[in-house]
Amino acid sequence: MKKETKIKNILIQNNTYLIFLGLVIVCALLSNTFLTTMNIRNIALQQSGPICVVLGMLFVILTGGIDLSVGSVMALGAAAAAYMIVNWNMHFILAMLITVLIGLVAGAFTGILVAFAKFQGFVASLAMMTMARGLALMITRGAPIRMEKDTLGTLVNKEYAYPMLFLVLIAILIFVFIQKYTAFGRIVIAIGSNIKSVELAGIHVRRYLVAVYAISGFMSALAGIFIAARSSTGSATIGNAQELDAIAACVIGGASLAGGKGNVTKAVVGALVLALISNIMNLCAVPAYPQDVIKGIIIILAVLLQLMTDKSDTTV
Prior knowledge:
Blueprint: H1 2-13, H2 15-30, H3 37-62, H4 70-87, H5 92-115, H6 121-140, E1 145-146, H7 163-181, H8 183-193, H9 195-200, H10 205-231, E2 233-234, H11 242-252, H12 264-283, H13 288-315
Antiparallel strand pairs: 1-2
Helix pairs in contact: 2-12, 3-7, 3-10, 3-11, 3-12, 4-5, 4-6, 4-10, 5-6, 5-10, 7-8, 8-10, 11-12, 12-13
């Protein structure tokens, strides 16, 4: 009996990974090209940006908040980087550094509204979503800014072993370390679990709220750079509806929108689950419009499975 309970607990704790593994098997059966090196590489490159967004979004969700501005900050990041490279002849690395600082400031502004002005995260980030998208349109004047391939395109250059993939891997490892081995990670989770208790412990909660939104803005701007690198184009349309995918990835990864529960590696796997769904539908030549319906149904099933296993976990 104890052995059965132990196995059940293992399955419940790793349900996100099991969903991903099951989806990989199904995709491999549906398409002969799914497991090819080229397809796996394309998935990795395509998801570099979205994974960065998910990492930032997760920390906001852990505090019980939400950041709807991530897609717009992505567009702002892509537009700002492209503008500096093309119009100011700035080296792409310096342009990247300035761009992520812009994202950090945008996120921190949202965090200040939440922490000090007592705005709800939904409202504060909604305002930033509108402003960031507007700024991106102003920078680009509504037209994509095209860059030379030896600028941001270097991040996806095969000759340099795809630097973008290494940057994303480093980001994942950093976030895993922060969540598991630092006081910051533990306090962020504690804020989402019981903010009153954290305040009574003498911890300055406002600082942490500003920090998580700043991190989200930073990662969103970085994601915008990565998306722009793949096409060597900075556009104000980048990141449309990315906030919804990021939230879905976190939830599929087992995060609670009420805060206090979530895991970095599972959130990343959640993002990959969404990527596999889109990839296999493209490989199977599913028309564009039904793809959103099918994707939505699969997300619902994945979340229902998470909820069912969570209930089982509480009764074990």
